[in-house]
Design a protein that fits this description.
10 helices
Length: 299
C-alpha cells in the first residue's frame, strides 16, 4: 500500500465515480482502477460495490476510508513540518470565527498572513462557538475565535483569553426607549426581542443574565448571524444586544448600556499541537493585538 493508492481510494469514495476520480487525480481510469484492484487483492476484500449506475463503499471500504484520511493527514502534516524546518510555511489553515469579532481587524489580519505566507491556503468559516469547539476537538479546524459567557469553561483546548466585554442594547432610534441613558433587563424584557437560537453559546450569555435577575423574557426572533440581528433591529421590529467593542459599527442605530447586563469573553483557541501554518497565524494574531495590550485594554 502506498499514498498514491490511498489518494485513489479517497477520490473514488468522494466522487462516487471512477472517471471523475481519475480526472481529479490526473491519471487515466484504467490505471486508477488497476491500483485499487491491487489494493483490494492485498487486503482480500472489496472496497467498492460497482454497478452501471453508481459506486458505493462496502463496509470494509468505509473502514479503510476512515483510517486512510488519518494517514493522509499525517503524511501531509509531516511534509508541512519538514518544509517548516527549512523556513517554508505551507499547507492549509482552517479558521473558525464568530460573526461578531469586534476588536480585531480580521480582513487586515488575513491579508497580512497571506502576504507573509503565500503558500498557505486559508479556509474561513463563521459558526457558533459551541460548534467550533467541537470541530477543534475533532481536528476539523485548526484555530477558532470563540465568544463565550464568562462562566463557560473552554475544556480540552489550548485557549487564550483575548478580551472581555459587556453586551449593549441595540435599538432603532425611533424606539420609545432609545432616549434613555441606560436600560434595565426588566425594561428589555418588555420589548420585542431578537437573539441567537436557544441552546447556543451566544444565547447563553443573555439567558444567564436575565435568569440571574429572576426575569422572564420572550424572544420573538431567533437568528444565526449578527448581520440579520442588526437588520431586524434596523427595521424597527425588534431590540437586540451586541458586543460593546463593535457597537460603533452600527451606524444609524442606538446602543445603550444595560444594568447588570450580559458579558462575553473572546478566546483564540487551537489544538495542543498546532500545525506550522496555525502556529504562524497565532503569532501574527499576537502581533496584531500588541498595540491593544500596550494600552492596557486587553484582559
Amino acid at each position: 500500500m502506498n499514498l498514491r493508492q490511498i489518494d485513489y481510494v479517497l477520490a473514488v469514495a468522494e466522487e462516487e465515480n471512477f472517471t471523475r476520480a481519475a480526472e481529479r487525480c490526473h491519471t487515466v481510469q484504467s490505471a486508477l482502477s488497476h491500483q485499487i484492484a491491487r489494493l483490494e487483492q492485498e487486503f482480500g476484500t472489496r472496497l467498492f460495490e460497482r454497478t452501471s449506475r453508481q459506486v458505493t463503499l462496502t463496509p470494509a471500504g468505509h473502514t479503510f476510508v476512515n483510517h486512510a484520511r488519518q494517514v493522509r493527514e499525517a503524511a501531509q502534516r509531516l511534509e508541512d513540518e519538514m518544509a517548516a524546518a527549512t523556513g517554508e510555511i505551507r499547507g492549509s489553515l482552517r479558521i473558525g470565527c464568530i460573526s461578531t469579532l469586534s476588536r480585531l481587524d480580521l480582513p487586515g489580519l488575513l491579508a497580512e498572513y497571506h502576504r507573509r505566507y503565500p503558500q498557505v491556503d486559508v479556509q474561513l468559516a463563521m459558526r457558533m462557538s459551541d460548534v467550533m469547539m467541537e470541530e477543534l476537538r475533532l481536528q476539523q479546524i485548526d484555530v477558532a475565535f470563540l465568544g463565550v459567557w464568562p462562566g463557560e469553561p473552554v475544556l480540552g483546548l489550548d485557549a487564550r483569553l483575548l478580551w472581555e466585554e459587556p453586551l449593549l442594547a441595540l435599538l432603532h432610534p425611533g424606539h420609545p426607549l432609545a432616549s434613555c441613558q441606560e436600560l434595565t433587563l426588566q425594561q428589555l424584557a418588555q420589548c420585542t426581542l431578537v437573539d441567537w437560537p436557544a441552546g447556543t453559546g451566544p444565547r447563553q450569555q443573555t439567558d444567564i443574565a436575565f435568569a440571574a435577575q429572576g426575569i422572564r423574557r420572550r424572544v420573538a426572533f431567533e437568528v444565526n448571524h449578527a448581520d440579520m440581528l442588526v437588520s431586524l433591529v434596523g427595521s424597527g421590529c425588534a431590540v437586540g444586544m451586541v458586543p460593546a467593542l463593535g457597537a460603533g459599527q452600527h451606524a444609524g442605530l442606538t446602543t445603550l448600556p444595560v444594568v447588570n447586563g450580559p458579558r462575553r469573553r473572546v478566546y483564540l483557541a487551537c489544538h495542543d499541537s498546532p500545525t506550522p501554518a496555525a502556529a504562524a497565524f497565532l503569532a501574527l494574531v499576537e502581533h496584531f493585538l500588541q498595540p491593544v495590550h500596550d494600552e492596557g485594554q486587553a484582559c
